[in-house]
Amino acid sequence: MIGLLLANALFFAIGVGLLPLLRIAPDRATLVERLPLAYPVGVAATGIVAAHLALIDVPLGLVELVVLAAVVLFFGLRRTRGAGAGTRPFLAEPRWSRWIGGGTLVVSLVLLAHAWGTYEIRPLLEWDGWAIWGTRSRALYEFGGATGPVFTSDVYLPLQHPLLLPSLDAIDFRAMGTYDPTLVHVQLALLAFGFLLGFVSLLRDRVPFALVGATALAVLSAEPVLKQLSTGLADIPLAFFVALGLLGAGRWLASGERWALVAGARVEWAIRSANTPSRR
């Protein structure tokens, strides 16, 4: 568990460095306010890099992740321009709206905490979960790249699926030091948490907070979401990226804020990576 959490802390650190580099947060005050976006942006960026490196048999492990995080953080924090004035933290709305929004977000966090406890002891049972995604994750962990028979032979044709989620899982296995198809489910709970962070951050100053919290709770409490997420399939993680990408693009269309378009484009690149087959 410590290795898995360390890997995700490094995803977050990479995201923190990318926010100034991508001009999502040009100054320190804005960086603090948009810090919740750092985790989903960091996961998306790391997944893109890992998936493409896998195509040339270059594994991304804990040491490489530390170096990448240090470099991105160094150049990112150097680019921040002064303290800044920040942005509006919330719309001017009544207190009851903030209480409702806060209460529903707390319920969402309770749901994710319950999912965390379930996921960390749930074995990989579903056919597609272990025969496709689990096999690809283990192959990337064991062999370091996507050029082995699992990815290139016609015998394994059903396994020619995208590399984004298996690449993230392989990073977790390298950080944990072993292939653990049970504990790696915690990564899925963290992806759901990242979606919640990004969702609130993109909408908090554009939509009444009560509506933001209620919508996030409606998404996470829908039966197919956390239930199917636990199977280890890529459908729900991909849906999280799609939703955040659309939110970023939608905010840009409504307000003309370029940083929202950049944030949406970052997760859109992750979507494209998730839909690019590894088969050559």
Task: Describe the 3D structure.
By secondary structure, this protein is mainly α. The protein has one domain (2-80, 96-274). It has 13 helices and no strands. It has helices at residues 2-21, 28-33, 38-54, 62-79, 95-119, 127-143, 149-152, 164-176, 185-203, 209-221, 223-229, 235-255, 258-274. Helix 9 runs antiparallel to helix 10 and helix 9 packs parallel to helix 12. The longest helix has 25 residues, at 95-119. Mean pLDDT is 80; it is low at 274-280.
Report a brief summary of the structure.
With 280 residues, the chain is an all-alpha fold.
List the helices and strands and how they pair.
Elements: H1 2-21, H2 28-33, H3 38-54, H4 62-79, H5 95-119, H6 127-143, H7 149-152, H8 164-176, H9 185-203, H10 209-221, H11 223-229, H12 235-255, H13 258-274
Helix pairs in contact: 1-3, 1-4, 1-8, 3-8, 3-9, 3-13, 5-9, 5-10, 6-8, 9-10, 9-12, 12-13
Percent strand equals under 5%
Helical content stands at over 70%
- Determine the number of helices (DSSP H or I, runs of at least 4 residues): 13
Q: Strand count, sense and closure of the main sheet?
A: none
Structural class: mainly alpha
How large, in whole angstroms, is the Cα Rg?
19 Å
What's the average pLDDT? 80
| Shape designation | globular
Unreliable sequence segments = 274-280
In total, the number of domains comes to 1
Give the H and E element order: HHHHHHHHHHHHH
Distance between the termini: 35 Å
Give the strand tally.
0
